[in-house]
Every structure is written in structure tokens, then in C-alpha cells.
Amino acid sequence: MQRILNNPDDIVDEMLKGFVKVHRDIVAVTDNPRVLKRVDMPADHVGVVTGGGSGHKPAFIGYIGKNLCDAVAVGEICTSPSAIAFLDAFRAADQGKGVACLYGNYSGDNMNVKMAVKMAAKEGIEVRTVVANDDAASAPKDQAGKRRGVAGEVLMWKAGGAKAAQGASLNEVIVAAQKAIDNTRSIGIGLTPCTLPAVGHPNFEIKPETMEVGIGHHGEPGIEICPLEKAEGIAHRMTGIVLPDYPLAAGDEVVVLVSGLGATPVMELYVLYDEIEKIISKKGISVYRSYVGNYFTSLEMMGATLTVMKLDGELKELMDMPCYSVGLKQA
């Protein structure tokens, strides 16, 4: 395993120290070393919190910043943050207006967030939640509550953070974030596995010249393993799952986010995006805004995710709001 690290068991804590030193204009430490917060958190607004396991940079700490998240709880690699970390993130973000906790649908996160919400209530901090479930491949549509949260979380944080910045109430922030994720579908395709530093070898396999359609960010099995295709074929497979799942139709306006999984060159992501937009445009769907880059990764996995959000007037306004974080900067 050729990696830049000291003791693999310390990689998350050492990564956080470096992250804060580099981005001290955006993020600050708290009394809990597994919780970071904004340095310029405005007073008198609804706090926005998220959290999750490490290994998905820039998620989750990369979305702390202006008009995005106010505090983030950090877990070990591919492991939920503790309930205490979520509670301390709520404390860090609370400005007396309540806290919106916007996180992904994973069993550990669900359990620890619920415990933290109860503990926060005893301290007089009102916390309400939205659970992202945008991964269309992870469960049938009629079992959407079982679907995982993946890169669509970025758009959920964008909507929720922007709504909070407008001075909205806790209920209004929750409603906007829920609509954002309800309008969003994602799909991932993996080309290679990833390696947990403490393990030293991949914990799953993707054979050469094949790709796994619908793979999760933690190597959760996808829905199909097939021969590796050209970018055009990959784009057809992705859009063929995401677009009909909502379903999106001619006349719709959408945000499109293509994220690398960690090891795919950005130039290849642009090749994929070009093919995706061709398909979307032929269906009469308009791309209002697009993002291409490494927004929600899985260590050094090769591959990409496609996320599509259907817009309405409110979501357009929220997507257009400027923001400033490590993971997303928008003027």
C-alpha cells in the first residue's frame, strides 16, 4: 500500500489538523476534536449541521462555510461520527433558532443522530432532521426510505444552507432541504475498489475491464457488473437509471452534478459530463446549472457519480445563492 501517512489509525485526526491549518479562514476547531465549525458563523440564524464518516473528501468538512453548513461531526473512515460528536456539532451551530441536521441514510448515522437529537432536546436545543436518500440504485423506488444518501447531499446542503442564510425559520429550512433531496436522484459507477488505510488492501473487488453499476461509496454492491464501456455508454447507463426514476421529462430544468470517486482524472469527468448533457438535452430537459469535479469521493476509487436535481423557482433561487467553502465556491 503506497500511501502518505504515519500511523493509519491516526489518519483522521492528523488529516483534521492539516485541514484546519490550511483553511483557517473558513473553519475552526471546537472543544471536540471531531467537530469543526465556521469561523464566521452569523448570529441569529438556523444552524445547519451535517456529519459522516471520513474518506469522502471534500465531504463532509469541505462544505462548512458561507451559506452552506455551520458545523460538521467527523467519524472514522467509512464510520459514523459518535452521538456525542453530533451533539457537539449541534451545540456549535445553535444560535437559538434551532438546528437543521442534514445527513445521509446510513444505519450508524441514523442511530447516532437520533441519540444526539434527544440529548440536545434536554439542553433546550431544537434539532430537526432531513435524511438524504438520493441513490436510485440502492433500493426500489417504492422503498425509497431504504435508499442511501450520496452526492445529492451536496445539493441538499446547498439548499438548506442558503435557506438558513435568508433568515428562514427552522421549519422553512427543513422543508427546503427535504424538497431538495426529494427532487434529486443519483447513481454511481465504480471502476476500481478503494483501500481503507488501516486494512491495507481493498475489501471488495472490481475486476479489470469491468465496471460496477450502482456501487455505493463504501463498496456496497451495485445492481450490475458489466464490461467496461466508453464514456458514451457509461452516460447512457447513468441517465437511463436516474432520469426515469424521478421521472424527469421534456421541459424540466435541472442541476447536474458529476463527481469523481477519488481517482478518476477530472478531464475524464468532463468527457462523461459532455455525453450526459447530450442525452439530457435530446430529451428536452434543460441544464440550468452544472458541477463537475470531486465533490463526494470514496478514497481512491475510480469511477463517478451522476446527480440530477429537478428545479422549481425556490430551488433555483437557493442554487444561485453565492457560497464559499473548500468543496464548493460559487460567486
Automatic annotation (TrEMBL):
GO terms for molecular function: glycerone kinase activity. The keyword Transmembrane does not apply. Keywords: Kinase, Transferase. GO terms for cellular component: cytosol. Its EC number is 2.7.-.-. Residues 7-328 form the DhaK domain. InterPro entries: DhaK_dom (IPR004006), Dihydroxyacetone_Kinase (IPR050861). Transmembrane segments: none annotated. GO terms for biological process: glycerol catabolic process. SUPFAM superfamilies: DAK1/DegV-like. The keyword Coiled coil does not apply. This is PTS-dependent dihydroxyacetone kinase, dihydroxyacetone-bindingsubunit DhaK. It comes from Leadbettera azotonutricia (strain ATCC BAA-888 / DSM 13862 / ZAS-9). The lineage of its organism: Bacteria, Pseudomonadati, Spirochaetota, Spirochaetia, Spirochaetales.
